[in-house]
Amino acid sequence: MTEHFTGNFTQQEAIPEEGIKAALEVLQSGRLHRYNLVGDEPGEVSLLEQEFAAQMGAKYALAVASGGYALACALRALGVGPGDRVLTNAFTLAPVPGAIASVGAEPVFVGVTEGLVIDLEDLADKADRAEVLMLSHMRGHICDMDRLMEICDGAGIRVVEDCAHTMGAQWRGTWSGRHGVMACYSTQTYKHVNSGEGGFLISDDDDLMARAIILSGSYMLYERHLARPPVEAFEAVKYVTPNVSGRMDHLRAAILRPQLGDLERQVARWNALYRVVEEGLRGTPGLTIVERPEEESYVGSSIQFLLLDWGEGQVEEVIARCAARGVELKWFGGAEPVAFTSRYDSWRYAEAERMAASDRVLAGIVDMRLPLTFTQEDCEVIARIIRAEVGAVFQGG
Description:
Elements (H helix, E strand, L loop, with lengths): L16 H13 L14 H13 L3 E5 L2 H11 L7 E5 L5 H8 L3 E5 L9 H7 L5 E5 L8 H11 L2 E5 L7 E2 L2 E2 L6 E5 L12 E5 L2 H10 L34 H12 L1 H19 L6 E2 L6 E2 L4 E5 L5 H13 L5 E2 L24 H7 L2 E5 L6 H19 L3
Parallel strand pairs: 2-3, 2-4, 4-5, 5-8
Antiparallel strand pairs: 1-9, 6-7, 6-11, 8-9, 10-12, 12-14, 13-14
Helix pairs in contact: 1-8, 2-8, 3-4, 3-7, 9-12, 10-12
């Protein structure tokens, strides 16, 4: 009998009871806005920022309305504006080049390797083209951060890390987001903690974080933040930094606080699912496993594999055959964007030179979510289905 998978690839776990209770208390208070406080109470948002900064080992943290807002806010804080160029990954999601374009700057795309990380040789070749790199740890894959920082420090490039897919991941024991001058995180539903929409900025730099807090819409209420630079850091920026409001509210912060406290356990659960699928696919004819380096501690909330040098029709047939058996795969190699999948040539507001080696990799990337509502037994079924359908198409069946 042919196996079918009946699970839902977009079904997340419920918000923890502690978060629901805290959210109800916020709703009952009617005080959702982060600065709508009574007396000296810190408020859920400031407490969340303080806790996240401590968790990441950062001096400062700012909670904002979305991960995309965090990206654009970081660029504005760095002074990136119209006519500037910003280096970024060719393999990423639309909010990354979108953030660059939103401040009037121009993305300069850097290639991708078969490990699905930024091509460091290409980065070194293009290092003289920009003063900022917005590094996307796309789909949770972390490059050799030691080598990347060596290149960037040598060229005077400031690094902003997009950690939307790497909250809780590490490179050689250092948290993802702790290498660059600023790091951005997402708390959108499909990320590692869930508030529907939301995000964080972290930094150790007094001036950059003071600018970010003013940008986020603090008005002159920045002293109410717990995870902020000294008040003196705001003096030079408070009258010359525009308000581009993107604050997080107390409701979302209340939902997030218990989830952050449980992040380590959730990461272990994701990685257990990831390993089941990875082992189930290993050795499949025509399929290339994306091997993870030993230095990387990843968060396996999604998994990718490569169908290198396959024809477009063959890849589409694999996607369709798996879908018919209940397994939802996404392909990053299509000529037109579908849902969140897109390529660097999809964003026609940004000029891009062709990169043949990267195009070959992008044409073969297949992606799949691994929600924590799946069991390890579910993942065994999923891997068997993918293995069977890839094998059938590869062998001409």
